[in-house]
Amino acid sequence: MEYFPEEAKVTYRSKYSKKEKEFSSLEWMAALCSHIPDRGEQTLRYYGYYSNVIRGKLKKDCR
């Protein structure tokens, strides 16, 4: 991620993509804030290998 204050632009490239995306600073903040859950909203924290079910099975197998 690079920020250019003179142009008020942000250039972003994810680790999965070779393409760069360019945002205005306000667009970047809107995209970033969209990932913040609303107050009281439940979020998913553990899934797949880290889920409680899998962790329980692994713990049982290790004993």
TrEMBL record:
InterPro entries (UniProt xref): Transposase_32
Species for this entry: marine sediment metagenome
Gene Ontology MF, one: DNA binding
Designated name of the protein: Transposase IS801/IS1294 domain-containing protein
GO terms classed as biological process: DNA transposition
Transposase IS801/IS1294 domain residues: 7-53
